[in-house]
Amino acid sequence: MRTEEFALRTGRTLITDLTARIDAWLAPADSGLLNVFVPHATAGLAIIETGAGTETDLDSTLERLLPIDDIYRHRHGSRGHGRDHVMPAFVAPSITLPVQGGRVLLGTWQSICLVDPNVDNPDRRVRLTLLTG
Amino acid sequence: MRTEEFALRTGRTLITDLTARIDAWLAPADSGLLNVFVPHATAGLAIIETGAGTETDLDSTLERLLPIDDIYRHRHGSRGHGRDHVMPAFVAPSITLPVQGGRVLLGTWQSICLVDPNVDNPDRRVRLTLLTG
Amino acid sequence: MRTEEFALRTGRTLITDLTARIDAWLAPADSGLLNVFVPHATAGLAIIETGAGTETDLDSTLERLLPIDDIYRHRHGSRGHGRDHVMPAFVAPSITLPVQGGRVLLGTWQSICLVDPNVDNPDRRVRLTLLTG
């Protein structure tokens, strides 16, 4: 097993593509299962295509399904912050992916993305754990 | 690998925090990937903050997005039970988490929670599987 | 570790039960964690009961929550294709499951299903990766 946490700054950006950073972390001979984990209660991970509009579509879908509104019991920080705490139940903060020959075996159009609706905390951490097989 | 199933009684409680039980199951030297799995078709797992209102917010969000209504084809048991069967497509019954030194490497505000909307089956099982690395 | 990709034809079928195929892939002595992964940006995996109406319920739930409409930025192919690209953020393309004695330790009513709303690409691949423990 190899595990390491890295920090990144998301600011007000909802979606951050982590794929290049994860690829760089893997060594050429690595094979096994890679777990990507976000140790935050207001962020999740999604495997989506980036660069073709889905970032915007996911943003508006989240606003439609989990409105930034005063309907939440959990209240502190910015308006609608309660929905940031509900999101990880649907967009989980953990995903496990197959690795072979130092590459995550993603499809052509897939990217590993951090989904971070929280505008109050611009600093985020992501943990990578590889269990070799 | 070490794997074990434990039973718990949820009754009409939607969200049950499993974190303490999972911590207690881990031995001090354990490191690797922990899979938490619910062998039920009407329950899921969520990593959320507990004790600050998100349990209530997730409950009302589920009722809004998956209404307890007669719109489902899958019908038996209590009214709206069909939505309990749809929920695991969005709140999956499996999550894998990094473990090091006998601790799940959760963030400060994260708890591992069973989400069980099913009021007809108060007895639930959860399986923990640790693959050491 | 053992990993293999297989192809299947989904056509216009939203939900395909993969359980029998996965069971057949496992050898009698296999134990560990099985990762099921779909290398496509418009498909996901769900553990649901099949044969009792939930396929239809999930279909109508997806149409309600992610309408096949012209509200998406990501546009090409069939109408509403943009929602197919949003879906994997909620119905993730990866799930990890415990295996013991050559069997996935599913509950009685659980099946491992491919959820593929994309009608433009009838040919799909699924990757199975077993990390033995």
Explain this structure to me?
The structure is a homotrimer of 133-residue chains. In chain A, strands 1-8-3-5-6 form a 5-stranded antiparallel β-sheet, with no helix packed on it. Chain A starts with a strand and ends with a strand. Helix content of chain A is 19%, strand content 35%. The first copy, chain A, has one domain: YjbQ-like (Jelly Rolls). Chain A has 133 residues and is of the alpha+beta class. Chains in contact: A-B, A-C, B-C. Chains B and C meet through strand 3, helix 3 and strand 8 of B and strand 4, helix 2 and strand 5 of C.
Derived structural class of chain A: alpha+beta
CATH class of chain A: Mainly Beta
Tally the structural domains of chain A: 1
CATH topology of chain A, anyone?
Answer: Jelly Rolls
List the chains of the largest interface with their residue counts. Answer: B-C, 32 and 35 residues
Proportion in β-strands of chain A: 25-35%
The CATH superfamily label of chain A reads YjbQ-like
Largest sheet of chain A: 5 strands, antiparallel
Q: How would you describe the oligomerization state of the chains in this entry?
A: homotrimer
